[in-house]
């Protein structure tokens, strides 16, 4: 009998399973894919993930793996003005760009090393119930047979289209709090900053979303765009055509001259943390994208996936120790995660709304590109929610006007 079944072996599920096994739990981790596997993403792994994953030895391995250290970020406004902001040199763990094919495999292997039992090529098809409590999962095995596996706790870490959340009757597509995004890999893109800066471009046709160009360790580029689903529908946007237009736009075309796309353009959804889902109940918890925890402004979700995984592992230990897997104990998990993230998610949601205002974006980026003090303030905002909150205050914009 397992203590926990974790469904989904992305960064959220693999790290949750590894933390649980480290604390002595008997864990089964199931994923429908075989690792290493790709995941549609910008491939940027930030400091929050690296801090938490260092407890599994992943961060050290990442530094030796096929990963590119990135030292800052460039924003450009619809007007074409741009500002490049270095990350603070005081940060212990810088950010990396690492293809998810490699990064997720490192986290997956950490679960394996921690003694987690793993079933790959195995898809969760439904939940088992005892009364009103989840009591296990029905899994389709690679040979096509379905097996019922029981445990007092099921953790749904199966991403944006979570089968576990669906089995719990949780609505997964709230268009106001959902982003549609596509990603393509390119070879031969030129003009990157020598500090391997991430590039976020606010372009007329894409705001309130953005177009990104991130340098990759193999010399290639991760290129993509993401926009709120409500806007995609309202404007009837075909994202693949829009990507082609952006690459051919006179602002970017010189950098794509001689470049070539490698592989297919792939799309995926981003459930945003501006409306987190119910995250716990009798015999279950949701982590990462399954719990809708992606940052509404930046689209980063790996950090919050591993943060929720770490907290879920602590609450799984509490449940095992007390023998109580009911909502009365597991609601502590939801309170803890939302307590840690509430401020950050609220501020990012406001910033997402601000990004809808083209003139404001133009003004802030133009002024910041001319004022070191303002650029330094924005740099601090990456690390400090308190600083970031300033972006949502009218006083900040008065200061910008005066800069
Ligand atoms: C285009 C795009 C760009 C992004 N860029 C970034 C970025 O640069 N940085 C960042 O931090 N975040 C980014 N994100 C968000 C990030 O990809 C997610 O937040 C992150 O992958 C969440 O991790 P997870 O472990 O919760 O889910 P996932 O990584 O989605 O893992 C879920 C796992 O569950 C498995 N699974 C699914 N269904 C089942 C089932 N029924 N049974 C068994 N297994 C199942 C899947 O095979 C998968 O392995 C981006 C997202 C998109 C779409």
Question: What does it look like?
Answer:
This protein is an alpha/beta fold and 403 residues long. It folds into three domains: 4-68 and 94-173 and 273-351, 3-Layer(bba) Sandwich (FAD/NAD(P)-binding domain), CATH 3.50.50.60; 175-270, D-Amino Acid Oxidase, subunit A, domain 2 (D-Amino Acid Oxidase, Chain A, domain 2); 355-402, no CATH class. The protein has helices at 11-22, 47-53, 58-64, 100-113, 163-167, 229-234, 239-248, 253-256, 302-322, 327-354, 358-368, 372-381, 385-389, 394-402, and strands spanning 4-7, 27-30, 44-45, 68-70, 72-76, 82-86, 95-97, 117-119, 123-130, 133-140, 146-150, 153-156, 178-187, 198-201, 210-215, 221-228, 260-271, 280-281, 284-286. The strands form four sheets. Strands 6-5-14-15-16-13-17 form a seven-stranded mixed sheet, sandwiched between helices. A six-stranded mixed sheet has the order 8-2-1-12-19-18. The longest helix is centred in the last third of the chain and has 28 residues, at 327-354. It is globular. The mean pLDDT is 91. It binds flavin-adenine dinucleotide. Flavin-adenine dinucleotide binds at residues 7-13, 30-33, 39-44, 123-124, 157-159, 163, 181, 183, 224, 226, 268, 270, 288-290, 294, 299-303, 305. Flavin-adenine dinucleotide (FAD) binds at residues 7-13, 30-33, 39-44, 123-124, 157-159, 163, 181, 183, 224, 226, 268, 270, 288-290, 294, 299-303, 305.
């Amino acid at each position: 009998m397992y203590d926990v079944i974790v469904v989904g072996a992305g960064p959220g599920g693999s790290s949750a399973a590894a933390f649980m096994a480290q604390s002595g739990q008997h864990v089964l981790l199931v994923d429908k894919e075989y690792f290493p596997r790709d995941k549609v993403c910008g491939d940027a792994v930030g400091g929050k993930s690296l801090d938490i994953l260092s407890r599994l030895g992943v961060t050290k391995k990442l530094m030796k793996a096929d990963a590119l250290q990135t030292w800052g970020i460039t924003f450009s406004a619809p007007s074409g003005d741009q500002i490049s902001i270095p990350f603070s040199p005081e940060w212990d763990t810088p950010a990396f760009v690492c293809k998810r094919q490699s990064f997720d495999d490192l986290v997956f292997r950490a679960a394996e090393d921690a003694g987690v039992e793993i079933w790959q090529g195995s898809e969760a098809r439904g939940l088992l119930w005892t009364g009103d409590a989840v009591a296990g999962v029905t899994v389709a095995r690679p040979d096509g047979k379905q097996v019922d596996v029981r445990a007092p706790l099921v953790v749904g870490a199966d991403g944006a289209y979570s089968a576990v959340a669906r089995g719990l009757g949780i609505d997964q597509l709230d268009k106001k709090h959902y982003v549609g995004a596509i990603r393509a890999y390119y070879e031969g893109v030129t003009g990157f900053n020598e500090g391997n800066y991430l590039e976020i471009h606010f372009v007329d046709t894409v705001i309130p979303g953005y177009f990104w160009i991130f340098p990759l360790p193999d010399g290639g580029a991760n290129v993509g765009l993401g926009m709120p689903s409500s806007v995609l529908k309202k404007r009837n946007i075909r994202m693949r055509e829009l990507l082609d237009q952006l690459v051919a736009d006179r602002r970017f075309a010189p950098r794509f001259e001689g470049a070539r796309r490698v592989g297919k353009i792939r799309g995926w959804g981003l459930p945003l943390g501006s409306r987190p889902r119910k995250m716990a109940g009798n015999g279950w918890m949701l982590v990462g994208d399954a719990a809708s925890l992606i940052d509404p402004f930046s689209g980063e979700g790996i950090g919050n996936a591993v943060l929720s995984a770490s907290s879920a592992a602590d609450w799984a230990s509490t449940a095992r120790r007390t023998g109580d897997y009911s909502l009365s104990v597991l609601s502590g998990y939801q309170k803890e995660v939302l307590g840690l993230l509430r401020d950050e998610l609220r501020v990012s949601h406001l910033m997402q709304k601000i990004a809808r205002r083209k003139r404001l974006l133009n003004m802030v980026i133009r002024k910041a590109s001319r004022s070191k003090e303002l650029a330094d303030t924005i740099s601090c905002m990456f690390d400090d929610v308190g600083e970031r909150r300033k972006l949502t205050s009218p006083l900040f914009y008065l200061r910008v006007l005066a800069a």
